[in-house]
Amino acid sequence: MIEIFAFSKENGLRRMTDVAVLPGLLKEETEFVWVDLESPTEEEAQILSTIFNFHPLAIEDCIAESHLPKLDDFGDYLFLVLHGARRGDSSGGFKTVELNFFLGKRYLVTYHQQLSRSINRTKERCLKNSLAMSRGMDFLVYEILDGTVDNYFPILDDFDEVINDLEHEAIHNPSKETLNRIFSLKRDGMSLRRVTSPQREILNRLSRDPFAVINKRTAIYYRDVYDHLVRIADLAESYKDLTTGLLEAYLSVVSNRLNEIMKLLTVFTAVMMPLTVITGIYGMNFKNIPELNWSYGYPFTIGFMAIIAFVMLGFFRWKKWI
Amino acid sequence: MIEIFAFSKENGLRRMTDVAVLPGLLKEETEFVWVDLESPTEEEAQILSTIFNFHPLAIEDCIAESHLPKLDDFGDYLFLVLHGARRGDSSGGFKTVELNFFLGKRYLVTYHQQLSRSINRTKERCLKNSLAMSRGMDFLVYEILDGTVDNYFPILDDFDEVINDLEHEAIHNPSKETLNRIFSLKRDGMSLRRVTSPQREILNRLSRDPFAVINKRTAIYYRDVYDHLVRIADLAESYKDLTTGLLEAYLSVVSNRLNEIMKLLTVFTAVMMPLTVITGIYGMNFKNIPELNWSYGYPFTIGFMAIIAFVMLGFFRWKKWI
Amino acid sequence: MIEIFAFSKENGLRRMTDVAVLPGLLKEETEFVWVDLESPTEEEAQILSTIFNFHPLAIEDCIAESHLPKLDDFGDYLFLVLHGARRGDSSGGFKTVELNFFLGKRYLVTYHQQLSRSINRTKERCLKNSLAMSRGMDFLVYEILDGTVDNYFPILDDFDEVINDLEHEAIHNPSKETLNRIFSLKRDGMSLRRVTSPQREILNRLSRDPFAVINKRTAIYYRDVYDHLVRIADLAESYKDLTTGLLEAYLSVVSNRLNEIMKLLTVFTAVMMPLTVITGIYGMNFKNIPELNWSYGYPFTIGFMAIIAFVMLGFFRWKKWI
Amino acid sequence: MIEIFAFSKENGLRRMTDVAVLPGLLKEETEFVWVDLESPTEEEAQILSTIFNFHPLAIEDCIAESHLPKLDDFGDYLFLVLHGARRGDSSGGFKTVELNFFLGKRYLVTYHQQLSRSINRTKERCLKNSLAMSRGMDFLVYEILDGTVDNYFPILDDFDEVINDLEHEAIHNPSKETLNRIFSLKRDGMSLRRVTSPQREILNRLSRDPFAVINKRTAIYYRDVYDHLVRIADLAESYKDLTTGLLEAYLSVVSNRLNEIMKLLTVFTAVMMPLTVITGIYGMNFKNIPELNWSYGYPFTIGFMAIIAFVMLGFFRWKKWI
Amino acid sequence: MIEIFAFSKENGLRRMTDVAVLPGLLKEETEFVWVDLESPTEEEAQILSTIFNFHPLAIEDCIAESHLPKLDDFGDYLFLVLHGARRGDSSGGFKTVELNFFLGKRYLVTYHQQLSRSINRTKERCLKNSLAMSRGMDFLVYEILDGTVDNYFPILDDFDEVINDLEHEAIHNPSKETLNRIFSLKRDGMSLRRVTSPQREILNRLSRDPFAVINKRTAIYYRDVYDHLVRIADLAESYKDLTTGLLEAYLSVVSNRLNEIMKLLTVFTAVMMPLTVITGIYGMNFKNIPELNWSYGYPFTIGFMAIIAFVMLGFFRWKKWI
Q1: How far is D284 from chain E (nearest CA, A)?
Q2: Helices (H), strands (E): how many in chain D?
Q3: Residue B91 pLDDT grade (very low, low, confident, very high; cuts 50, 70, 90)
Q4: Which of C274, D42, D169, D199 has its CA 20 to 30 A from that of E298?
């Protein structure tokens, strides 16, 4: 699907879908043009080479799912690959949305296979406020990026929540399921770090290095996006330590709990042993065991066994073993 | 709440609360102006844009809780976000206080949602000594920062104390509560590192890079704050190793203690086993067990069992198992 | 085996195997020459010194298996050692293929002991499209490198698959074999990192630094290969964390499983102990044990023992120990 | 306590204690002056500001115990904080001695709260050889630093010895005390790293960067001190790995030893169990147990029990369990 | 022992042992002089200061065992400390040989306390081929370094072999001795890293930085030695991971093996318990136990006990516990 937004001071904002108007618009010195390709057909994607004449390598990277953020400066235009993120179906997980940008002085081409909330929101803003595109194409990219980066925060909140949940679960009610969730959290955190760290570097370059197509006044806005990404990458990094801590806590608690049980049961067994020996003694068939003939031999022995058991329990308790 | 401190050599120090005087003061070449906004209303916060005309991004970051220290140079003024720290309610914890600074050549705007001890102390010093503001606004910032950074040291002392406590507890009286406290210490240490490390970088830039609004002679004072922050960040970093060591110590001691118990009880069980077998033997109903008819069979057997028990205990002791 | 590809605009593409033509070709200003030595004899390898007059150190490194990627700039020509990879026989493993390049302005010498798929494919492309060599020798190197690097991806897919397999195996059916496979995966991952990281650095230099024999327009193609290598090295790095996670998961699951068994058996033992004591009590030979003479003493005692066993099991279940 | 050493080619070396002569000496272009303040009174310390007029921040850092090495260049003079080390009372520990230097072109002020062996030795050398101060104040600093750094080596030797001791102890005779000593060694090693690493950086700057008060010919001597510090920091770093290895060894050995005991005792218990069952069988009161009436039933059963025990022990030994 | 090799185009190569000729040789513009001091007496060592007039610090470092590689540029000459390695007596270990070089434009002084194979081999080459010294003293150093570095490879092969051995041992036959060997391997690997990493840096500087006494054409040969050292340091680094992996494997296998034993024995004990209870039941002295009077009570009970044992074993096997 192709959508074209054109803006000039004379003509205001126009929304079109026919690519035939593009060559004309691109020649007009006063026109700003934004072309958005959402999950385009192969035919639609060909405008990248036929109309815009982008470098074959950039087009290849644009069409392929590249997984890795990228910033290539071709002089006339920048080629930019970044990733948005969307809550996954299950709790704590997330999915990435690849966004490709070709940013020229007077045009912007965005290319994405999946629906992007931040691009849609920017479109709406353009339609509502016809001056939105008048601040230049680099500012338009800023607006999209700002929305994209802001979408990370609910995901980070999810992480926080899951970590808190798991911390409580690991300490108070650890189960095999807890272990599974910790490992899945670990993997999600790793994905998050791998997605955010290189984006941070790219925004850093966008905000700091001089590029022909980026106005110096816009760079400070990119800096702002960069600052947000620093915080995101920072949090993603800290989830690593937290998850490792979770695993340590889980293992400590599980092992402690099991040890407690083993200890109690071993104590119990130890208390029973002397009783068995005593009953064994008076079960022996010796002719001459005086106690057996005493009138109160039996209750006395039972009482003695009870005393032994209580003394041992008392001793273990005094030793703080139970 | 807005407080305005104005100083000029002719007029001395004046303390005001009415923002209406600000435009006039800012125009005077000889006036130094400090505007402090403590948990301001939305209306009060608007002077940032209406009177000072700061960059919208800086104002946005100022009003939002940004969690991350920041240093943005807008040429005419610096925008600075730093964090003070305050002892938390519980032992060992701490809370951060976000301080925002807009530092111009002849004005300083401080903005903070919570009461800040170091800002209050600087105000008092200005009121007592009317020349306090005469060394320039950058020096005023130094005085606030110096106080802010010094407030970290009691928190570090708390950490030291808690670590020493926990070390003693982990080695001599480890309990599940110890584990909880270690993990909470770990998290606090992580927060401390995340708050102090970026601040150190910012003070480094403040003391080293040339900024239009910072006098070269003040930079050496910033360097001093930087040195303090290096030490704080260094200590915060070392708490990481110490906490990991604590956890290792705890786990070693708990595991050793449990193993000791298990060992003793297993030894005990092992000693009881042969006694049971012996009583079992003389409990058998064979017609022809000569020992059963001996007059001293019973006391002899009891004695034999006692000897076996003692020999085994002696053997275990000799082997250093008990 | 030596193959020679010569191309000039006048003469088109020619494929030869006789080294005698080389000196003549190299003198012609308009000829591009590619010499491929595949597992050459010692005699064949001598053309490196006799005809091309390369530096003795470069020739030595070329002939020896150097294991380490390398980029040496000799001004007139670059000497380049890179490694392709091929699936190993067993699942998850891989083998490296060393490729040596001497890249001059108008000639390219490739030297490799083993068959290289990417070199063969480039040869085929040259034979099919006679203009393939017209874009310069540096572009030819790009085409070979691009193929070489693309060959890493199936190996990475193998890794992914093995990791997923092992993850499932470690959590649901851990055995000693799983441990062996995890350690072998760990070693493979280490090899992969050691092969890819230095190659990434070399491609970085190739794409960024100015070299006499590399056209600036080709550098962007090298950049593309570099981007692929960044992703490969990145994935290889992440396998490290994943493998460590695997080991942790395996150890946790094995230890949990064993602990479960030990716990159940200990519970079982603990339930049996009091029963033994009770039978012992009524096995004692005291003259005067009233219960022994009761008519229903025996069934009552058996019932009492059953009750004790059930109460204990209920207690353990209530405590969630079983 | 204040000691003043003055040297000029005309007047030779003089040793004084009266600060009143200082202003005169400092004015003389040909005089070299060394002022040593050892645990000075507050009054004595005031010469830093009254006579030398040092920067207030430097004086503040000098008087406070700063814990962190420091190098501040004030143009006319360098302010330097470094730490010597002294064997602690207990084995393996050490204490640091803070040394403050103000190094000018023709004067040196040393300030330290505790007695410093290297400063005393340098004083003696000056008194013995009146030309010792003629090589400049920067060379005097080198001589003090050289002595200071050399004092680290006996401490490193102590470390080595303690590590060797503990290694032997951990493998052959591990006790709870061993664990304590390992943790205390760990803490000492951490202190050593924290003291030596920043000093190394400072000596690196002293030997490499140009400073007004340091002669280029002296820099190579500073380089030598730097090389020693590199080695010290390197060793301190390696103690980290060695201590971690110690802990691992200790834990492995303790756990192995305990497991050995548990295994032996469990084997012992397992051997006793069938014997108990057999005695139980012939202790049953069935009317009709033929074996009970056999003449040799009893010795035969005892023999059978012995055979069972030996077969089991043999089996366990064959399995290498005992 | 002092050996002097002098070479000039006019006089060819001469081998001398008398230091008296040195001053004369050093004055001749056309003479190349190599002085080798092997475990020299104190008197012999004095030529460093008396004849060559080297810097006192360099001489001090040369005579002392410095343990740390070093490269000091004194303008006229370079002072270089590097370490060769020799197989130790025991398998897997190694010893270092310190080599000191003073490299001038026309002279080379080598100083070593122990016999050095690579120096001896270079001497032989000089004696065989009189032109060996004609390529300059820097090339002579390259030849010695090349031999020195090549001597590391057999040691690395030893490491490889020991690691493979230990891997097999750890998985198939782990014993306490294995643990000792792993820890000793760990220490050796650490020594190897500490020896090779700084040498790599020094060769990097030698091959890259401009030095007055090193010909630019020789630098590429130094680069080659550097590449070998990169590979050595790389392998040494990878031994770290491999050794850690070994320890993990050892601990996993030992713990698994022990757990297996414990499990089997516990299962065995659990099977015995109910049998004991049954024999206990029929050993009770109740008047009225009907089963005791049955003719087949005894064999029936024995059979019942056998069935219980088999059912339990079958259950455990079904659960995959044994």
Answers
A1: 4
A2: 11, 7
A3: low
A4: C274
Q: How far apart are CA B262 and CA D65, in angstroms?
A: 50
- Distance separating alpha carbons of residues C13 and C19, to the nearest angstrom: 16
Token pair, residue B230, equals 């290096």
End-to-end CA distance of chain B: 71
Mean pLDDT, residues D198-227 taken together: 89
| Opening angle at CA D11, ends D6 and D14, nearest 5 | 35
How confident is the model over E264-307, as pLDDT tens digits?
888 888 899 999 999 999 999 888 888 888 888 899 999 999 99
pLDDT attached to residue D90: 61
User: What is the dihedral sign for C-alpha B212, B215, B216, B219?
Assistant: negative
Give, in order, the Cα–Cα distances in Å from C51 to each of B285, C26, C28: 104, 9, 15
pTM value?
0.79
Mutating which of C62, C272, C305 best tests the E interface, going by the most E Cβ atoms within 10 A? Answer: C272
Name the least confident of A258-267, B51-60, C109-118, D133-142: A258-267
Asked whether the predicted pLDDT for residue D6 surpasses 70, the reply is: yes
Asked whether the predicted pLDDT for residue E67 surpasses 80, the reply is no
How far off is chain C from E208, nearest CA to CA, in Å?
13
> A176 touching C, CB under 8 A?
yes
Q: pLDDT tens-digit profile of A104-144?
A: 999 999 999 988 999 999 999 888 887 778 888 999 999 99
Cα four-point dihedral sign D287, D290, D296, D302:
negative
Closest alpha carbon to D101 in D192, D35, D42, D6: D35
D179 interfaces chain E, CB cutoff of 8 Å: no
How large a percentage of chain D has pLDDT more than 90?
Answer: 33
Compute CA distances D102 → B237, D72, D280, D300, whole Å.
30, 10, 91, 96
Locate A141 and state its tokens: 């990219």
Residue entry with tokens 């009077």: E293
Q: Could you tell me if the ipTM is greater than 0.90?
A: no
> Taking a contact as any Cβ pair under 8 Å apart, which residues of chain D between 8 and 37 contact chain E?
none
CA dihedral D305, D308, D314, D315 (to 10 degrees): -150
Q: What is the mean pLDDT of chain B?
A: 88
pLDDT above 80 for B23: yes
Contact: C258, E259; criterion CB under 8 Å? yes
Give the pLDDT confidence of D58-75 residue by residue, as tens digits: 998 899 886 788 898 888
Chain D positions touching E67 (Cβ under 8 A) are 231
**Min Cα separation D135/chain E (Å):** 15
What is the C-alpha to C-alpha distance for residues D91 and D88, in angstroms, rounded to an integer?
A: 7
- Which residues in chain E have their CB less than 8 angstroms from residue C279's CB? 277, 280-281, 283-284
C173 shares contact with chain A (CB less than 8 Å):
no
Question: How far is it, in rounded angstroms, from Cα A106 to Cα B6?
Answer: 48
Which of D282, D284, D315 to substitute to test the interface with E, most E CBs within 10 Å? Answer: D284
Mean pLDDT (chain A) is 88
Q: How far is C322 from C221, CA to CA, in rounded Å? A: 64
User: Least CB-CB distance to B276: which of A249, A276, A287?
Assistant: A276
Q: Which pLDDT belongs to residue D89?
A: 67
Q: D31 in helix, strand or coil?
A: coil
Closest CA to D61 of D76, D43, D45: D45
Q: Which residues contact D201 (CB under 8 A, 6 or more apart)?
A: D69
CB contact under 8 A, B70 and A227: yes
Q: What is the DSSP letter of C153?
A: H
How, if at all, do strands C77-87 and D78-87 pair?
unpaired
